[in-house]
DNA sequence: GTAACATAAATTGTTAACAATTTAAACAGA
DNA sequence: TCTGTTTAAATTGTTAACAATTTATGTTAC
């Protein structure tokens, strides 16, 4: 892909959101961002417009840009949309995945397993999301893949806002069962597993809780961080 | 909603695309747009970034912005995504629609009927799209509603590119049957009707055909046009 | 000590000028 | 007439300066 300042900025912010380093409500000041990414404010403003279109940033006139804070209703809509989209994705996967795809899924399960033993929460969150995005990729529908990318980021915001500490991580167990039903080419079961998995995640969210605020932008968004 | 120059510009371009006044491949020059909407180029660039994020505009570095030209593969992905999303939407509608909602659907059918007799193709296209968006609204899931808005616009581009002249309009007949099954609270039938309807539209597309080019931007995008 | 107000700082919004690149046009040579 | 080159025009990209608004600070009155 291209490598414009806008793209770099957008990708970094999206990564930070999906890793839950950037939390809902955080202000994204223009000066701060243009300093961090050593570009001018015009670039920043364009990038923020893009992020706003992705619905992970709210643009408030004369006030600036803020990481969006999903309401409870919005959160439920996001999860229902995920179920709708991932149901079709998993159907595509069962029908289209070849042996190499299934191998990559198993490899990913192993990675998740090893990460789980490290107790590195941000890393675990990233790997969990990556599993769902890997499914989307194997499903080979670029439109659904793009929407799922957006929805998983919004899910990260939601879990960061309302999620209980213990919960809010995909259990490797459920991921493994999903992969097994793909390998078995059991479409109905795979769909049911994914649906159950998503409802499980949603069920663990405790609406009403509060979210701790977070450190300065420079700690969260340093551009020299690996893009993973 | 807010009334910034960016918003106005985005809305007008989206309307023009969904009405098929703006066709795939049309160049959206910065000067032309800033003249048309009497704003400066900074506004135009921000608006174009938003439209690019909506995936209805391609931004090519140093070349400018163009209405995006969906490939055949992309078109199939768009239709599959629509089936996935509208399946859930129609389920929501059957479960959540009250009498007023059903009345508004019947009213819309009447409007479509009267428009059909006028032989005004752009008007018919707009009304057809409005039916699907009305369903999305009644379904009361703002995330799915937003995605359907994007997908129906991309559908307009696809039909404008590949659609045969005769076809490519939702038949009122199918819309009427959908409304009837909603009124009957027949979830399975409603879902089947919507799925069939979307496959019908997709089936009438003739990939391989070419699209005629189109007149100047000023004719297509005059900002004083009603937004209705 | 608190509330309301005035002032200063910081941030966002707007505009214009200039540089770099691409596109179109003019032109010369074969 | 066609091809390739050079020149000019138009378009996009970049930057900085300034205006308007919001936020923070400090002061005064009660």
From TrEMBL, chains A, B:
The keyword DNA-binding applies. It comes from the Bacteria. InterPro entries: GntR_C, TF_FadR/GntR_C, Tscrpt_reg_HTH_GntR, WH-like_DNA-bd_sf, WH_DNA-bd_sf. Residues 3-70 form the HTH gntR-type domain. Keywords: DNA-binding, Transcription, Transcription regulation. One of its GO terms (molecular function) is DNA-binding transcription factor activity. The keyword Magnesium does not apply. Gene3D superfamilies: GntR ligand-binding domain-like (1.20.120.530), Winged helix-like DNA-binding domain superfamily/Winged helix DNA-binding domain (1.10.10.10). SUPFAM superfamilies: GntR ligand-binding domain-like, Winged helix' DNA-binding domain. This is Transcriptional regulator, GntR family. It comes from Roseovarius mucosus DSM 17069.
């Amino acid at each position: 892909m291209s490598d414009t300042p806008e793209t770099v900025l957008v990708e970094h912010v999206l990564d930070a959101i999906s890793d839950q380093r950037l939390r809902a409500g955080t202000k994204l000041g223009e000066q701060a961002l243009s300093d961090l990414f050593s570009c001018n404010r015009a670039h920043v403003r364009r990038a923020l417009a893009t992020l706003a279109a992705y619905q992970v940033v709210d643009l408030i006139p004369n006030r600036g840009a803020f990481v969006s804070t999903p309401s409870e209703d919005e959160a439920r809509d996001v999860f229902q949309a995920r179920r709708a989209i991932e149901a079709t994705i998993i159907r595509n996967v069962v029908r289209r995945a070849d042996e190499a795809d299934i191998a990559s899924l198993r490899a990913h399960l192993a990675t998740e397993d090893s990460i789980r033993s490290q107790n590195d929460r941000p890393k675990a969150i990233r790997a969990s999301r990556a599993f769902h995005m890997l499914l989307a990729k194997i499903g080979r529908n670029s439109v659904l893949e793009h929407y799922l990318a957006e929805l998983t980021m919004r899910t990260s915001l939601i879990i960061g806002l309302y999620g209980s500490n213990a919960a809010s991580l995909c259990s490797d167990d459920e991921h493994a069962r999903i992969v097994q039903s793909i390998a078995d080419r059991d479409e109905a079961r795979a769909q049911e597993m994914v649906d159950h998995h998503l409802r499980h995640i949603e069920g663990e969210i405790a609406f009403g809780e509060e979210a701790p605020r977070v450190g300065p932008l420079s700690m969260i968004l340093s551009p020299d961080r690996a893009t993973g």
